[in-house]
Amino acid sequence: ENIFDRSRMAPKTPIKNEPVDLSKQKGCTPERNAITPVKLVDRPQPDPWTPTANLKMLISAASPDMRDREKKKELFRPIENSEQSDTPDLSQYDMAEDSTVDEFEKQRPSRKQKSLGLLCQKFLARYPSYPLSTEKTTISLDEVASILGVERRRIYDIVNVLESLHLVSRVAKNQYCWHGRHNLTQTLRTLQEAGELQYGELMLLQHKEQDLEYKFGERKKDTIPDSQDGPLLDLSEPDCTSASANSRKDKSLRIMSQKFVMLFLVSKTKIVTLDIAAKILIEETQDTVDHSKFKTKVRRLYDIANVLTSLSLIKKVHVTEERGRKPAFKWIGPVEFPGKTDEPRGHSPMSDLLPGTQRGASATGKQRFTRHASFNGAQPCEGAKRKVSSEPSSPRQERQDEYCSKMINLTAVCRQEIEEDTRNPSIKSPLSLLPVPGDSDFCVNPLPQAAFPVVQADVPSLSLPNGVSSQALHPCVPAASKTENGKPALLSNQPFLCFPSSSLFMLCGGLQENTPPGMGAAGKGSTDAAGPSCGSRRSASPSTPTGHDEPPAKKPSVEQSDVPLSLVVPKKPFETPKAESTPGSGCTSAENLEAFPLDLASPVAPEAADKESTKPLDSQEQEKWSQNKDPDEPSLGKEHLSKENANQLFLPQYLYVQPAAGLSSFNFLLSANQAPGAVSLAASQLPSLSVPCVVVPSAALASFPLVCSPTVTSPLSPAPEGSFSAASSVNFSVPGLAPAAPVLIGPTAVVAPGVPAAPPEPQQPPAPALHLSPALAGPCGALKLDSPVCLGHPVTLLKLQQPSSAPLTPKSIRPARHEAFFKTPGSLGDPVTWKKNEGNQTRSVSSVQRRLEISSTSPD
DNA sequence: CGATCCCGCCACATT
DNA sequence: AATGTGGCGGGATCG
């Protein structure tokens, strides 16, 4: 009702902002247009009394939806968009005018009408929840702001949150790409996994203390010299404050939003009180926490909560604790994500988003440059950039990591009594990794690379567990398969294991190229197997893949999952905390996510494949990535097998990559074991290159060439888009990487490919290098990679450090965490292997192995 | 009076 | 320097 008033009023208000210029708005995509026919009017200036009022009016006039909505709903509640609207408007208008006009005073729009929640609903109403894959809808901030009648600032609030869930991705300045909820499930799954890592323990405890927070020890990071992880984590966080160096921005709403969501996903009760969330999010500081800081945090949480409420993911409730009632929110979105779910990266799932925008990188917070670097690296492809001129991305990338996390205590969360609902026992399962595929084009983002680094690490750990899980999803996969005997198999199951091989595989497969990303959607996909095309991303179906969140089974599956995992799982309660400190790992969660896609994709992929294969739906997707995949493998043995496999993997196997086209001379060797990470990275990042790979059993590198198409080809270079996509994955593109990453390996354990390594900056050679051979580094960086170098080392792993990516690595960190989890007592076993530094990763591996009981020895 | 959270200043980033 | 982003918190409203 008020609304109307508003409208009328509007005219009067003086405007301040107002801006509205429609001019620019261009539009967006066709779809959009269709949807919203109107755009807006004109008029800007007016004389309105209230500032916004006029805008609103305009807006309303313009978009039917909005209006409806407004009226209808009050605030939050979900909206569906309906479109019904139109008609009414007119009438309204009229009405409005008549009546109120003067009163504006009274009526003022009431604060509620201007609430972010309502605004968000309006925003969401403008776009389809499940847009066709085919087109991408672009969103112009200016346009939307004017249409909705709000200042741009408010739109940023909404978009930032949506971006954290991958419902949109930033394409360029002032431009966002609407993805809808297709990938929401995947995103949530990823967040859940990340959340478990970070907060899992806490949750377990939850009840125990409420607030406890432990501090996680100090993060350790010690080991890691360089990188990334450390930094991220650790530092991370400061939250704000200081600003200083790290970008303050990094953290931001986006990250906060992801963390907030993570808390819900990890919580058994699915209810999180604001104060607890705020404490957790504040991370470190808690103790100290200034009251003001806390207050600010809460404020932000309200902002996020309003958006999430509009998405119908949460709802407000109150919990009564000892002290009394406290405001809280309950998760009402999907709870479980069966293993997979989507995967598909086909479309562009989140990964896209992530990478593209910012997420990817990350790395340290501080250096922003990195971004650039990354870009460079990544970019090579034109593709990437092509799209937007201004890409946004670069900059932000990093942020995420940053502070990842510190995790904290959440504990409390659960316990309280909630008013509304009770608690559910449910829960989550564990971890699976996510598969996320990346890809996609739409987003364009160049930066994918970053991500993967992390991945590896993580993956391993988790993965297995679920059988389900699998997240695999990914596309990647299989191709190669076989490389070594069994390995592949392994892959499938285990995440980790797989990597190596998988990665390779992927690469190989990829090589082929992918079709151009863009291609039509449908067409390409065709088969999986065949599919070289991987790239395409999307093939087809728009929605299918993931299946929307909704439908999916959310819960059902859930339960199952948990159990299985156990192995790896995280649970490690206390230890972890400190142990790993997790520095990095934890943090990254968000990033991870992002990262995941990339990485995961590869590694995981295998698994995914399996599942998928199983599943019907995915077929498409599968296709994509799979291209080659071998379904066979999937086998399912999953766990068991995997273990075994794993072992195998760990064994000294290495992969060799030959130089391929892209790289020129790049040769890689990966250790099978760790490689994963490495590999993955590569894959992810680089879109372009394809490299032939070979795996070498232990020693002999040379010999086998496996797979891969030697040539690469990738004419197109899908780089940009494709990169992730399955196809992409396949290829290695190294471009970016190459430089950055040094792939090389260190003789021993390397640790980390993932984790540790991450050098902060690309540019620098990573110092981290812990192991890397210096030489390599240099070259690599350059891009050029000299392969030779690498080769030299016997063992080695790869690590890529990417320049930009490097930062990314941090994400990897996560893995570390895993380690922690894993960390078993014994892990230390190999001397060599585990170095401290690497420890993390390595360790994790080891532990894993252990779990697996692997005998593996060290390479060589 | 506490819970919400709009509003918009202003710092930082990108053009 | 202009413009895009978005942290942040005062203080107005709501309940």
TrEMBL record:
Compartments in which it is found: Nucleus
Compositionally skewed regions (Polar residues) per UniProt? 81-90, 536-546, 839-860
Q: By its UniProt entry, which SUPFAM superfamilies does this protein fall under? A: Winged helix' DNA-binding domain
Q: Does the keyword Repressor apply?
A: yes
| Any one cellular-component term (Gene Ontology) | RNA polymerase II transcription regulator complex
Q: A single Gene Ontology molecular function, please?
A: DNA-binding transcription factor activity, RNA polymerase II-specific
InterPro entries in the record: E2F, E2F_WHTH_DNA-bd_dom, WH-like_DNA-bd_sf, WH_DNA-bd_sf
Q: Which residues form the E2F/DP family winged-helix DNA-binding domain?
A: 111-180, 248-333
**Sequence ranges of Basic and acidic residues compositional bias:** 65-77, 547-557, 621-639
UniProt cross-references to SMART domains, sorted A to Z = E2F_TDP (SM01372)
Region listing for Disordered, in residue ranges = 1-32, 61-91, 221-245, 334-402, 518-590, 605-639, 822-860
Q: Does the keyword DNA-binding apply?
A: yes
Question: Which terms are listed as keywords in the entry?
Answer: Activator, Cell cycle, DNA-binding, Nucleus, Repressor, Transcription, Transcription regulation
Q: Which processes are annotated in GO (biological process)?
A: negative regulation of DNA-templated transcription; positive regulation of macromolecule metabolic process; positive regulation of nucleobase-containing compound metabolic process; sprouting angiogenesis
Q: Which domain of life is it from?
A: Eukaryota
Main localisation:
nucleus
> To which protein family does this belong?
Belongs to the E2F/DP family.
Spell out the protein name for this chain. Answer: Transcription factor E2F7
Record the organism: Urocolius indicus
Q: Which gene encodes it?
A: E2f7
